[in-house]
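Appendix B. Raw example, untouched.
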Amino acid sequence: MNNDFEVLIEKAIVNAPDWLSEDLENIMNKTESPIRESYIVTELFKRYTFGIKHITSAMNRDSEWSQLAHDRLNFIDNNLDLIQYMVKKLKAAK
């Protein structure tokens, strides 16, 4: 059963959105010191919560960023365990 779980995790990581993989790599490449998963999740939330991008898109009457950020925050919130496994895999690759 453990082997089946590992196969399932690998498939989930392979099928994870590209933006998530890129964001995780960017966050992890910020520093050489060890990074905890909680820090990475916090950084992900900071990227997509209300901020200057929302304000500028609203000023331009464009709701695309707001919708994109909302969708990504939902994905992050619903897939914290996947993010944890992706981080472990990236740490192991370093």
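End of appendix B.
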